[in-house]
Amino acid sequence: MDGNGRWAEQRQLQRTEGHLRGEEALFECIEGAIEIGIPWLTVYGFSTENWNRPKKEVQFLINFNRETIRKRRDELHERNVKIQFIGRENWRVPKGLLNDMDKARDLTKENTGLIFTIAFNYGGRAELVDAVKAIIRSGIEETKVTENRISKYLYDNEMPEPDLILRTSGEKRLSNFLLWQSAYSELLFLEDLWPDFTRKTFHQAVKEYQNRSRRFGEL
Question: Number of structural domains, the chain?
């Protein structure tokens, strides 16, 4: 979900206005996923690097995410969406936001529709560091450390590896997102800024993915 700030600046608006418009785009994306039966959708809500942004913007993003979760959790529950979070929840995240995250999880935990995961205070490298630390604490022998074993120690070991990763705003990099899980993901980079993203954009991206041939390293 990239380009909120640039979208606002292009229109001579405050960067916060871009984030507000980005929320609408997010729920366009969710509705688009529900319409065509996508089982898992994971979005990058707040990265571990985002703490380095100006303090005022960081505080806005924290409050904005909290208000969005509060405002939308009942709506998503009615749509049979299961809400999940991945990231370093025990590091720097305010207690109030953690409580709202827990309430959203608890409310929707029995839902059987789209599994919507928000990567919050998340970094792909941080996830691997935390996985390695957990493996060391478990006392597993070196010879038993395998790819499958590492996968079991990720933040959500039930989340499938993504088939498709979309990035908006023309940037062509993963920016520390799902580094382990994305080894064989298809990547699609869009010029659209995130606030301009619509469910039509989402459906077109899925269609392009369906026309690709995935080889998983084979010929």
Answer: 1
Domain that holds residue 83: 4-207
List pLDDT tens digits, range 159-180: 999 999 999 999 999 999 999 9
CATH code, 105: 3.40.1180.10
CB 131 within 8 A of CB 122: no
Catalytic residue among 2, 4, 100, 121: 2
What's the rounded Cα separation, in Å, for the pair 96 and 107?
Answer: 17
Q: Is 74 considered catalytic here?
A: no
4 is catalytic: no
Give per-residue pLDDT as tens, 121-139: 999 999 999 999 999 999 9
